[in-house]
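testing teh design pipeline on a random one, pls ignore if ur not involved
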């Protein structure tokens, strides 16, 4: 929708010219004169009135001229990143707008309203009311990206900056273009495969749509030492046959670079595991995380249901140690004698 084209004026037209053309077109398209195509007339009359309402008021016109109809109705960011516009919706009675401008109904000077029956008048005003209510809009499909994270990032928490693309409306309010953005993503401790970081209302948008979300979905990179199962970590220790029989100490370097020395005093048999309580992944109980975008003044959101930092630190899964026993390829005669003496 181009307000200047609707009023048939140039972009540098002054307020007097805009008002004169508005009067001319409002009288031309008043539905009372278009019994055969009243629906079209109501649309035209509404568009003419909306165009006049915007272009005759400097505070709306300056936003429209710089940011288009999208900036006018939904808002936009200026060069300093501040939000401008977004406070205009056309909900006015077109006849009221005309009366405010000229002090009378657009047709009282040459149309006899005494000839209009009450039911006809009611029908006209009902149609105006329906046209003034903005149509319901569906939310645009979200922009979804996988976010591959290391186990270290999911254990310690991390902040990542990720580039992505979205479709946005151009200044004409109709066509779209691709825009590149950068998101600052806060990865919470204990997040896992399938968890999502959601940026609401900053994704794709097209004509007659509510702006969609941007979603980053957590995936997990393969780790050389650990496997993850929910909030537990699984570590496989390699031991010799002698260690399996006589006991040993297993040293494990954790994801936060601590070294655990874990004594194993029982005989290690195939399938044997040892559990170290509280040395697994942090338990992330919060709902999907919402973060702030680098290009937007939106604050970084936090969940009121998230546990306190101390509570988070105290709730971890377990470290499960599995064992692989390395058998000797051969034994010396002396070793065989010793094994025989031991009755093994």
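output:
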């Amino acid at each position: 929708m181009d307000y200047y084209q609707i009023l048939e004026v140039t972009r540098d037209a002054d307020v007097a010219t805009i008002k004169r053309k508005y009067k001319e077109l409002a009288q031309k398209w008043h539905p009372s004169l278009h019994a055969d195509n009243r629906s079209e007339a109501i649309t035209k009359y509404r568009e003419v009135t909306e165009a006049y309402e915007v272009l005759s008021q400097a505070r709306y016109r300056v936003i429209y001229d710089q940011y288009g109809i999208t900036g006018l109705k939904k808002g936009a960011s200026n060069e300093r990143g501040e939000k401008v516009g977004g406070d205009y919706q056309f909900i006015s009675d077109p006849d009221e707008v005309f009366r405010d401008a000229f002090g009378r109904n657009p047709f009282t000077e040459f149309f006899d309203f005494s000839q209009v029956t009450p039911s006809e008048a009611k029908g006209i005003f009902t149609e105006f009311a329906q046209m003034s209510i903005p149509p319901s809009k569906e939310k645009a499909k979200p922009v979804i990206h996988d976010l591959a994270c290391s186990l270290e990032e999911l254990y310690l928490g991390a902040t990542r900056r990720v580039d992505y693309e979205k479709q946005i409306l151009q200044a004409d309010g109709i066509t779209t273009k691709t825009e590149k953005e950068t998101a600052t993503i806060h990865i919470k401790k204990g997040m896992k495969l399938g968890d999502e970081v959601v940026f609401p209302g900053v994704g794709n948008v097209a004509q007659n749509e509510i702006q969609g979300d941007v979603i980053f979905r957590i995936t997990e990179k393969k780790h050389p030492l650990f496997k993850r199962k929910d909030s537990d970590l699984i570590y496989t220790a390699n031991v010799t046959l002698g260690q399996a029989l006589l006991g040993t100490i297993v040293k494990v370097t954790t994801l936060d670079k601590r070294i655990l020395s874990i004594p194993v005093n029982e005989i290690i048999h195939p399938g044997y595991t040892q559990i170290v309580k509280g040395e697994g992944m942090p338990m992330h109980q919060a709902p999907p995380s919402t973060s702030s975008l680098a290009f937007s003044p939106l604050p970084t959101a936090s969940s009121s249901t998230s546990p306190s930092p101390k509570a988070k630190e105290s709730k971890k899964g377990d470290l499960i140690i599995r064992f692989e026993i390395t058998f000797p390829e051969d034994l010396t005669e002396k070793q065989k004698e010793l094994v025989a003496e031991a009755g093994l």
